[in-house]
Automatic annotation (TrEMBL):
Name of a matching Pfam family: Bac_luciferase
Luciferase-like domain sequence ranges: 10-293
SUPFAM superfamilies on file: Bacterial luciferase-like
The organism of origin for this protein: Actinomadura nitritigenes
Entries under InterPro entries matching the protein: F420-G6PD/mer (IPR050564), Luciferase-like_dom (IPR011251), Luciferase-like_sf (IPR036661)
Superkingdom to which the source organism belongs: Bacteria
Protein name (Swiss-Prot/TrEMBL): LLM class flavin-dependent oxidoreductase
Length: 327
């Protein structure tokens, strides 16, 4: 199982420094999310600041950019990284797309399938100068009189998925699958692997919090679980773990006015233990081993929701130390 990392930085310079430290510790890939920053600009900074590790987006929002823009950015990042770039895409949820980004939310799985087809077609043919046409119901490409006058560096396309529809789509069309940041071994085995195909890169995302005091590790990770428990889309995921009542309590706190990144107090230890890798370094290493034989890659990320920068730095340093031991 490959050990990989999702770096954090209060500045882009610190983000690159963290990515480089993870690479030096033995991380085989570093991944950049799209929430507090864009995905592609930090990926460019990290690609320029690292040497060996793959650089991936985990995930870039598929509908917030046109498929052609996504393809152009992926081609540039593949070139900049010397072929180390992985384009990880996801849909996000309805509220994020419509309210935050002002883009329509219609048949997201079908639209993502067509988006991937356009990205791949454009990347393969943009340098030829020939017309490019991909007709879809929800996404299309019709380009004439265009030629990208640079060599094309290929890149794989990974898709994120939590529910069965998106996970099955990843199994149908993607080179790899990226799990939600909360992904237990049980969910991986029962909810995802039956829908994925052999030979894919199976990337398990794991919110990770390490401290000599397990209670302190749980406290830091609670905000991550609370953030996602406030999103109704993930209700089935929490119910799978027998956490429906606990999720409802968190959602009620959110509806009562708590910030999405301020829900840690509403999260019980049972939820943290089920959905995150929290505890001492030895306990977390044992939890990582539970994915062996099922995942091909694990992506460790520090908790950030509701934490001050100093606490995130501490959490990040402990994860990078663990990567060094595991690698």
């Amino acid at each position: 199982m490959r050990i990989t990392y999702g770096p954090w930085g209060e500045t882009l310079a610190e983000l690159v420094e963290a990515a480089r430290a993870a690479e030096d510790a033995g991380a085989e890939a570093v991944w950049l999310p799209e929430l507090h920053r864009s995905a592609t600009v930090p990926a460019a900074a990290v690609a320029a600041g690292t040497r060996r590790a793959q650089v991936g987006t985990a995930i870039a929002l598929a509908f917030a950019r046109s498929p052609m823009t996504t393809a152009l950015e992926a081609l540039d990042l593949a070139e900049l990284s010397g072929g180390r770039f992985v384009l990880g895409l996801g849909t996000g949820v309805k509220r994020l797309n419509e309210d935050w980004h002002g883009v329509r939310w219609e048949r997201p799985a079908a639209r993502l399938r067509e988006t991937v087809a356009i990205i791949r077609h454009f990347a393969a043919h943009a340098a030829s100068g020939e017309p490019m046409t991909v007709e879809g119901e929800l996404a299309s490409l019709r380009v004439r009189g265009y030629r990208r006058p640079f060599p094309a560096t290929p890149f794989p396309v990974y898709l994120a998925g939590t529910g069965p529809v998106m996970t099955r789509l990843a199994g149908d069309v993607a080179d790899g699958w990226i799990s939600h940041e909360l992904c237990s071994p049980g969910w991986l085995r029962e909810g995802a692997l039956p829908l994925l195909r052999p030979g894919m890169d199976i990337v398990v995302s794991a919110a990770c919090s390490i401290d000599d005091d397990p209670a302190e590790a749980r406290r830091r990770a609670a905000g991550v679980a609370g953030f996602y428990a406030s999103v109704r889309t993930y209700a089935d995921f929490f119910a799978f773990h027998d956490l429906a009542a606990e999720r409802n309590a968190v959602a009620e706190a959110f509806r009562a006015g708590a910030r999405a990144d301020g829900l840690a107090a509403a999260v019980p230890d049972r939820m943290v233990d089920a959905l995150t890798l929290s505890g001492t370094a030895g306990q977390v290493a044992d939890r990582i081993a539970d994915y062996a034989g099922h995942a091909t890659t694990i992506k460790l990320t520090p908790p950030v929701h509701g934490l001050a920068p100093a606490e995130i730095r501490t959490a990040q340093a402990r994860i990078i130390d663990l990567i060094k031991e595991l690698a």
